[in-house]
Design goal:
- By secondary structure, the protein is of the alpha+beta class.
- The chain has a single domain, classed as YaeB-like fold, CATH 3.30.2310.
- Helix content is 36%, strand content 36%.
- It contains three helices and six strands.
- Strands 1, 2, 3, 4, 5 and 6 form a six-stranded mixed sheet that branches.
- β5 and β6 form a beta hairpin.
- α1 packs across α3.
- It is globular.
Length: 95
């Protein structure tokens, strides 16, 4: 997978859903620390990734990041390959 051009939000959502189902979801150390501080679990993240929708891509340090969200939380990911995503951040939404 190339990072030259961003994916559309629809395509990013579709690919993330597919990878959660059939591929690998990795968590950066930063993401795990954020999860703890936000009171979220990796299972919470998987649910957001499975059912959430993506915002338009944002470039962060030369890599496209995609923020998927549900009513309760948002999770930011990057694509490592066609079959792997890395969670880089997660936040609980304010109620």
């Amino acid at each position: 997978m190339t990072n030259r051009d961003p994916l559309s939000p629809e395509r990013a959502t579709e690919l993330v859903h597919q990878i959660v189902r059939d591929g690998n979801v990795a968590f950066s150390d930063r993401a795990l620390a954020t999860l703890r501080s936000e009171g979220l679990t990796t299972a919470d993240c998987h649910n957001v990734l499975r059912w959430g929708t993506s915002d338009p891509a944002e470039s962060q340090r030369g890599v496209w990041c995609y923020r998927l969200h549900t009513a309760g939380a948002s999770v930011s990911v990057t694509f490592r390959s066609d079959g792997e995503i890395a969670v880089v951040s997660a936040r609980r939404k304010q109620r």
